[in-house]
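Morning run. Coffee first, then this:
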Amino acid sequence: MVKESITRRLRYIYLRLTRLRGDPHELALGMALGIFAGMLPIIPFHALAAVALALAFSASKITAAAGTLICNPVTIYPLYRYAYELGSFILGFDRNAEILSPVIKTIHTEQFLHMITATLSAGGKVAAVFLMGGFTLGIIWAVPSYFIFHYFLKAFIAWRKSRKLIKA
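And here it is:
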């Protein structure tokens, strides 16, 4: 029963994605902006930020929202940990500083709700570390993802057109 439900859901998502219309640039840019927003440490607002960026850059809002799925319950802990490590390195903060220790302990124990409260209660320095790390990770992943998805979407659209010609 559950397997059928998951398979049916995945098939539905597959069909929705294959029926997307639009310019490959617009669709790939939306995906890249979604991946960028998904890397930012703004947990409940990933999709909102991605759609706002898609509106600002005239990209696909659907693929932008889909791109935020890079940050999910499985990937959130490594993403936040790397965002913290990278942000600390860029801003020159000691990764073992006393102000950051409660946040690091919650990241290591993977307690999501405690991670949010620890980050918010730690102050501006910790927020700056996470934002800088997330912003940097977002750029690192978004730029190549644009080119990968652009190539894939161009090939997919060409395949779809050739398939229509064969049927006609």
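The chain has one domain: 23-163. Good start to the day.
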